Amino acid sequence: MDLLSDHLIRARATGAVFARTVAEPPWGLRLGPSIHLSLHTVVRGRGYLWFDRPADAVELVPGDVTLVRGGPIHHIGHEPGAECLEPAEFRARHGRAGPEDSPRATVFLCGAYQFSGDVGSGVLEALPPVTTLSSTIDDPVREVITLLSRELLRTEPAQQIMLDRLLDLLLVLAIRSDLRDSAAAPRWYRASSDPRLGAALQAVHENPAHPWTVPELAAISGLSRAAFARVFREALGQAPMQYLTEWRMTLARDHLRGDDLTLTQVADAVGYGSPFAFAAAFRRHHGDPPGTWRQRERAAAQARLLTTHADS
Questions:
Q1: What's the rounded Cα separation, in Å, for the pair 201 and 109?
Q2: Which of 36, 104, 123, 211 supports an S-S bond with 70, CB 3.0-4.6 Å?
Q3: pTM value?
Q4: CATH for the 189-301 domain, from 2.40.50.90, 1.10.10.60, 3.30.200.20, 1.20.950.20
Q5: What is the CATH number of domain 3-181?
Q6: How far apart are the first and last CA of the chain?
């Protein structure tokens, strides 16, 4: 498994389709900051996407896929600065399919992703605030958009599974394209394609619980210990064992937040021989023992959930 696949799987991204919408002007949709990653594509017509300043709006054209990283509120509408409704009100007004053959109508799809934990945050932080992926006639992006649009025209058994998988494909195509072409791609992504480091990084990610040593990772890479340590530090900005520890701590935080594993099970999963060794390492990194950290994080998550329900 390559590193991008590993990050996406561990991020436990879940997809949901807002709708396939046919809307005649005026129309506008306001999307809040709780969505970690939004996906927008216009099947026919035109739309515009903007944050605070309509003057900086990005045009949405057929065949393109635009990803918006969560955080600020963003809007899409028939023109920059259009009046934008909350999702529930928008669906009530535009939920029924409109006159799709109208020359004024825009047909567009909106999807949303939620990511879990620090691995998911790492994927999102690797993306710019807005990413636009343009397709060509023979591009797989265009084919996926066509399939997604057709699937939303009817109700079929297991439809949500189909929609999730098609959104997954669009997400992977967009993220892969952005990271491949971006000079700001995360170091782990760039290093994963380095023939001197790729195999060692893959081994660490596939089996973080293994008691890795620098000589063992160097042997996987076909380098001497000194050469491997030097190349690794140059590429990733830290020593191999420091990278391993940081990755183990990232996985541990996600286990503590989202799983019902005992501390002994978490320790085993991330490569510590006993819960005492794990607790000592975790406390050095976070200032609190893992049990205390888990209770605080879960209490904060519950408070956020109650606030969200109160506001909805």
A1: 37
A2: 36
A3: 0.74
A4: 1.10.10.60
A5: 2.60.120.280
A6: 40
